[in-house]
Amino acid sequence: MSSRISSLQDMILREEYTGENRCVPCTIVNLLIAVGLSMIAGWIQVELGVAVLVGSILLIYFRGYLVPGTPTLTKRYLPNRVLAAFDKGPESHDETEWETLEKLEAYRENRVDAESFLQEIGAIEPCNMDTEVCFTSNFNERLWEELDTLKTENTETDPAEGNKQLETGLSEGTFTIEIETISAIYDTSPSSIRVEERDYPAVRAGRRIRKWPSEEALAIDAALYRALETLSPRWDQVPLKQRVEILRELRGLVRQCPGCGGAVGADESVVESCCATYDVVAVQCLDCGAHLLEKDPEKSDEGDGGFNP
Fold first, then answer.
1. Residue 280 domain-assigned?
2. Per-residue confidence at 174, pLDDT binned at 50, 70, 90?
């Protein structure tokens, strides 16, 4: 009996619309529809109304929706302020790392002025008549050395190895990012890292989902982290929230695509998340279109990263 229930659950379950992928506005809309349908059915017969309500809730729980096409309808008709309350886009992160007074104190003690810190350790320098910052030649060389070490030949991988390494396929080869590198970036143990099945690179690091807009962006973050480690032992002491934002900002300084090898430039694009579409300023590979960094054009200078490339 239990095997039949499990098989039925597997047939109904839609992981792309449930769990971490659940669209909250869609769920709310579908629950309201379910209540309305059950009230109509209950007017005919009370038992029928209860059955409709219970069945609808089960479908919403396992499938993420009751009415097909709800994500499209919510994007089209719900006001942006409502969607924004539930969804923050494909590369947003909840980076709040000070749930206790101890963490807040540690953050205050170890936080850095990002631009000054990166200049002091030799990662960036002023350029273009001192109006921008760029990688120093030494750090740029280190970064590409790290990227080269991440590139491996295209090989078949046993699915059982999926949580030991994160493989991101590119047209010019494959980047292999070790789980140990991801866990080091996010101050967690390798055993807590789980690869998420999504259309973009994502891992569960402890209790949080960490995302990147493309496979190239993930590879750059891993290479940046390793390159910065070689410059200063203080890098690992920078608070996690700030460290992650610094990596994102540095990603915007890359001028050659690590995947297709073409130039990198900025363009305004529209990206889609589970519940809405967003206008973003995207730093992207001009030849292959891979996004390296996505920024809200109205909030491009926010965050603790401390500099705006």
1. no
2. confident
Tokens 């998420």: give the residue.
Answer: 196
pTM of the model: 0.65
- DSSP character at residue 17: G
* Cα gap 240→159, rounded to integer Å: 30
Give me the sheet containing 173-178, strands edge to edge: 151-152, 173-178, 165-170
Answer yes or no: do 115 and 35 share one domain. no
Domain presence at residue 46: yes
Same domain, 106 and 234: yes
Q: Are 244 and 92 in contact (CB under 8 A)?
A: no
- Looking at residue 272, its pLDDT comes to 56
Residues 80 and 105 in one domain: no
| Cα angle 118-250-80, degrees, rounded to a multiple of 5 | 130
Alpha helices, H only, the chain = 2-12, 24-44, 46-63, 70-77, 80-84, 101-110, 114-120, 137-150, 179-185, 215-231, 240-251
| Structure tokens, 157 | 């991988």
Q: Are residues 51 and 192 in the same domain?
A: no
